[in-house]
Amino acid sequence: MKRLLPLSVAQLGPIHLADSKAAVVERLIELLKEAHSRNSHFVVFPELALTTFFPRYWMTDQAEIDRFYERSMPNKDVQPLFDLAKQYGIGFYLGYAEITPEGERFNTSIIVDRSGTIVGRYRKIHLPGHSDHKPAAPFQHLEKKYFQVGNEGFKVWETMGTKMGMCICNDRRWPETYRVMSLQSAEIVVLGYNTPSHNIHWPEPTHLRMFHHLLSLQSNAYQNALWIGAAAKCGSEDGFHMIAGSAIVSPTGEIVAQSASEEDELIFHNVDLAIGDNFREHVFNFAKHRRPEHYKLIIERIGADEPIK
Ligand code: CDV
After folding, report:
1. 168: domain range?
2. What is the pLDDT of residues 233-248, one digit of tens each?
3. pTM of the model
């Protein structure tokens, strides 16, 4: 029997430094209205969806840095989004920069259910990039400067008729991310991303950025019998280009919906959660087939080292 979750993924085009949060929230609301017109129950918005991808900038002025962070959620800027989503009965995933009352800074996402309640929070664990200034690079990737490593693990929430997990951007490239969630019986993982088209560390062919993004989603959806909804922030933010490719991927590993632009764009699929059941019961029946006694190195080692004797 089908178990349906009408799912939208709301891709965002560029957010420039000069754009106000209120203006961005208006764009999110337009996408929410479109999701409502498609009878969606859930919408996935991108990573750091309220601001430009500010880790590309080396900043030392604390006030300049602080304006990118949210001190509470919801707050007056995003309240209109929460209000309309509640009115429509649509849940959502939203990424933003969080500063706690103690001054800790995280790259965070939340799951809001269809009644407007925040049911889950995730703080990004795999922070890419560097913390030092690289003046020779065309732009920075300073997530290690502006954020701490997430301290709440990879969790799964029973909500909206499913078991939902979440992660953020670079997390999507790591098999551990999804396996920790599929071991908690996650049926769907939602995520947002900001992926620069240009790699500042080595001359990576540009087409590989999109290829590896989709490869990561497709392989991990299949290997963990999961649906994945992935929302890009994309296009050229003040001249810095990021890939699009927002996608909904089935537990078969197939892409069932993909964005076609580098602008604000909604994609939709009436997700049948039951598709994952066949994979969980057979080829990826973890209880029957996993052999954790042979996986010890995965938690004992961080970096690659000598072969074991
Ligand atoms: N925001 C990100 O985490 N971006 C990384 C980049 C640095 C490769 C990503 O994995 O897409």
Report:
1. 4-283
2. 999 999 999 999 999 9
3. 0.98
